[in-house]
C-alpha cells in the first residue's frame, strides 16, 4: 500500500503550497524563508514518503497532517534558535570569566616573579607638571612606581618649566619638573603663596652637536655660527653661506623630533625666546635615524643628547662648542658635562617638591622612590647621572625637609657654576 | 510494475514527528559562525573608514576656535594664526590655532605641522603627495618593465625546468619582509648610489633619498607584477600562438604582437595593483626615504611620503591628540581615496579591455 517512495513531494505541489501558506500565517517571518533538507525530510514524512518511516511515526500524508508537521517543525526551529542564543550568552560569560581568571593568573605571576610585590594599601594622587625635558625621567619613575603602588595615581604633565612653576607656585601641583633652576620671580611667587619647596637635582643633560668624521672644515662652533646655521629667516642652503672659507656643499640638518626635550633645549639656546628654528630640517624621534643621516653625508650636521654620541663615537665626530664665558672650545664628555665646562649645552635637571604636602604618604613614597632610582632612570632615558655625592645631598635635604633653592643668592642674583659646588647646604636660600 | 495510487483516506500518524531539534541547533550554530566570520572583514573595513573620516573631520574642525563666552566659532586664517584675536561677537580674546582649511590642505605645497610657532605651521598635503608619487614613479619605472620582461620570458621562452627554478625564487623575493627591503635600501642601495661612478653623472645623493627607496619598493613589487602578468599571459589560448606561428611569425613576434596584446587587460590590472601597492608601501619609505616633507621632484633628495608621515606620527611621542597627530588621519583619508580610485580604475580597465576567447 505504501510503495510510492519514488514519488517526490514535488508531485504534491498543492499540498506543499497549502502547508506553506498556513505556515506563513502561523509563524514569524524569519522562519519560513528557506526549507532545508531536514525540512523536506519532515515533509516527506508527513506525506508518508520518508525512507525513515520504519523508525518514525508515519502519516498518511494529507494536507492536514502536513500542516501539523510543519507547525511542529517551526516550533522546533524556534527552540533551537533560543538554545543557540542561550549558548552564545553562556559562552560570552565563560569568556569573560576566563579573562578575569587570566588577570588573576597575571597578578599571581607578578607576585611570584622577582618584582616587588604590589602594595594596594597606598593610594591617592601625585600631581606633576613642568619641563618636557625632565618628563621622560619622571614618566619612567612614575611608570615604575605604579608597578609597585598600583593604586597611587601619578599624573605627569609637560607644560614647560615656566608653566609648571606657575601651577606649582599656587599649590596646584605636588612636584614641578624643571630643566633650569627656579628664577627669582618664581621663587617670590612661591613665597607669596606660602609654598615651601625642596630643590632636588636629578640628572645632567649634555646636548652634542655632531658631524661626519670626514668633515674637515668644522673644527669648532660658536653660538653665533649655530644661530646662522639654524635660525629661521636666513636659512643658508650651502656651507659657504655660513662661512666663506667653508666649502660650497649643501647643508643637511638632522634634528631630534620636535617633541623631544633636546629639540626644545636647542631651540631655546640657539634661537632664544623670540626666534624660531628653520623648518626645512629632517626631524626624527628615532635617534639612530639622525646617526645614519649624519654618517651618510659629509656635509651633514645633527644634534642629540650626549648619550647617543657616546654610543656612536666611532662613527661620528662631535663638534667642540665654544663656551661663551671662557672662550674655550669644549667637547662634551661625562667630565666636562659634570663640571659645567660644556656650556651652554650642559645643564642639571631638577624636580621641585612642595614641602607643604610632603606628608601625604604617597608623595613622600614617590619622592623617595624617585631619588633612589634617579641615576638609573637618567641613564635609561639618555641623560648623564649626577655624582653620587649630589644624590646623597639631595636625599639628606629630603629627609631633613630643607626648603629653599641653592641657585639664588639672598639678593636674588643667580649663582653660576657646577652643581657639585652650588648644591651644598651653605648656599640654601629660604 | 504498476505503482498503486496512494490512498489518502485517513491519517495514520499516531505520535509526534521525529525531533530535529538537535540537528537544527547544530545547523544554526554553524550558520551563525559562518556569518560571523564573513561579516568580520566587512565590519573592520567599515570601522576603519568611519574612524578615518571622523578623525579627519576632527582635524579640519581644529582650524576653528569656539568662543567660550558666546559660542561663536572663529576660523583661523593665515594672518591670524597663533595670535590673540578678539571675538567678533563679544570681544573676548581668542587664542587662534594654526590655519587649517580643506582647500589649503588639498592644494598647499608646504607641510610643516611640527616646527615653529602656530603661525609657521603649514598643512599642504602636496608636499607629501609629491614624495609618494616620486617614490611610486621610481618603483614603477623599475618594476613594470622588469616585471613584464620577466613574465614574458617565464611564460613564452623559458624551458619548463628553468621556470621551475625561477618562479619559486621570485616568490621567495615576495616573501621577504618589507622592513628588510628598507634596510637593504639604506645599507646597500644608497651607498652604491653614493659611489663616485654614480655621483659623477647623477650628482650627490643624500643618505635618505627617494631613488633608493623607490628602487627597493620596485624590487618588492617585481614578483607581484611578474607573477600576475605571467598568469595573464598563460591564459591566452594556445590556438592564438599557433595561428601566428602558422603565418610565419617568430617567437618574438608571437610574444609581443599576439600574446601581450591579447593579455593586455590582465597586464594593466597587474600594473595598477602594483601601483596601489607602492603607494601604500610604508616600512621601506619610513626607513630609507627620509623625514623632510617638501615639494620636490629631485629623487636624490630626502623626502617624506604620506605613509612615512603617518609612521612618524604614530611612532613618536606625539600621542597627545594635537594638530600634527590629527593630520595623520587627514593624510590617511587622502591615501585611502587614492588607492580606492586606483583599484576602481583597475577593475574598470579589466572589464573594458577584457578579451574573451572560446
Task: Give your account of this protein's structure.
The complex is a heterodimer of chains A (430) and B (358). Chain A is of the alpha/beta class. Helix content of chain A is 44%, strand content 14%. Chain A is built from 15 helices and 11 strands. In chain A, helix 1 (13-26) packs across helix 3, helix 5 (160-169) runs parallel beside helix 6 (184-192) and helix 13 runs antiparallel to helix 14. Residues 1-9, 26-33 and 50-61 of chain A have low confidence and may be disordered. Chain B has 358 residues and is mainly alpha-helical. Chain B has 13 helices and 6 strands. Chain B has helices at 21-61, 102-107, 126-157, 160-175, 178-193, 196-202, 210-234, 238-246, 251-262, 264-280, 283-288, 306-315, 323-352, and strands at 64-66, 73-75, 84-86, 93-95, 111-112, 122-123. Chain B has a two-stranded antiparallel sheet. In chain B, strand 3 (84-86) and strand 4 form a beta hairpin. In chain B, helix 3 packs parallel to helix 7 (210-234) and helix 12 (306-315) runs antiparallel to helix 13. The radius of gyration of chain B is 30 Å and the shape is flat. The model of chain B has no long low-confidence stretch (mean pLDDT 87). At the A-B interface, helix 2, helix 3, strand 6 and helix 10 of A face helix 1 and helix 5 of B.
